[in-house]
Design a protein that fits this description.
215 residues, alpha/beta, Rossmann fold, two-stranded antiparallel ribbon, 6 helices, globular
Length: 215
C-alpha cells in the first residue's frame, strides 16, 4: 500500500498529539513517524489509521493506540543493537517501531493466522532486523536468550518467571499486569541472578495474554 504524502502528513499530526500527551523521547517520536501504520491495518481503516486509537486486526486482537506503542517503547530506553524479545506480534506495528529504533527484534505470536499475515507485511516493508516466531508467549524463546529487553503487548495475569529468566542481568521488561479491563504498566529491571526491581506506572487496557498457541 502506497505511503502517500497524505499519510505522511497525518503521521506528523499524530506525532504532535503524542508529544502533547507526554512522549518526550525524540528518537521514539522519529521512529513512530517513519512507520506507515496504515499498512498494518485493513484498508477500511486507511483514512483513520493515524488517529490515537486502537483498531481490530482480527482473531479477537487489536493494534494498540500509537500512544501506548510510544509509551512502552520510551520505557525500554532502546540502544542500537539491543536484542529485544516481543511477546505478541499482533499486527507487527510495535515490532516495526522497535526496529526503527535500531533494535534486533525477536517477536513471538501465538495466533497462527496473525503470524501468517504479519510476517509477509514486515518483510515487504524491508524490516530485516525483525525475526518472527510462532509459539507460546509464556515460554518465550529460551534458545535465543538472554535478551537485553523484553516487551509484553498483552495483559499478563501474572509476571512470567520464564521470561524474567530470559533477560540478561541489567536488562528490562515492560509488561501490562493484571486482569480485568484495566492493567498497570510495570517496569521490571534485572539487577542480579535472582534480584529484580519493579516499578508500577500508569493504567492501560490490553487484550489478555493467553497460554498456548492456536493452529
Amino acid at each position: 500500500m502506497l505511503d502517500s504524502y497524505r499519510h505522511q502528513g497525518l503521521r506528523k499530526k499524530m506525532i504532535a498529539i503524542l508529544e502533547s500527551e507526554g512522549i518526550s523521547d525524540r528518537k521514539v517520536l522519529e521512529a513512530v513517524g517513519r512507520v506507515p501504520r496504515h499498512v498494518f491495518l485493513d484498508k477500511a481503516f486507511t483514512e483513520i489509521a493515524y488517529e490515537n486509537r486502537a483498531f481490530p486486526i482480527g482473531e479477537g486482537q487489536t493494534i494498540s493506540h500509537p500512544y501506548t506503542v510510544a509509551y512502552q517503547t520510551q520505557l525500554l530506553e532502546i540502544r542500537p543493537g539491543d536484542r529485544i524479545l516481543e511477546i505478541g506480534t499482533g499486527s507487527g506495528y510495535q515490532a516495526a517501531v522497535l526496529a526503527e529504533m535500531g533494535a534486533m527484534v525477536y517477536t513471538l505470536e501465538r495466533v497462527k493466522a496473525l503470524f501468517d499475515r504479519t510476517r509477509p507485511i514486515l518483510k515487504s516493508l524491508g524490516y530485516t532486523k525483525i525475526r518472527c516466531f510462532y509459539g507460546d508467549g509464556f515460554a518465550g524463546l529460551p534458545d535465543l536468550a538472554p535478551f537485553d529487553k523484553v516487551i509484553i503487548t498483552a495483559a499478563a495475569p501474572e509476571i512470567p518467571e520464564t521470561l524474567l529468566k530470559q533477560m540478561r542481568i541489567g536488562g528490562r521488561m515492560i509488561i501490562p499486569h493484571g486482569e480485568g479491563k484495566v492493567q498497570k504498566m510495570l517496569k521490571i529491571s534485572r539487577k542480579g541472578e535472582h534480584d529484580y526491581e519493579q516499578e508500577t506506572l500508569d493504567d492501560f487496557s490490553f487484550v489478555p495474554m493467553l497460554r498456548g498457541k492456536t493452529v
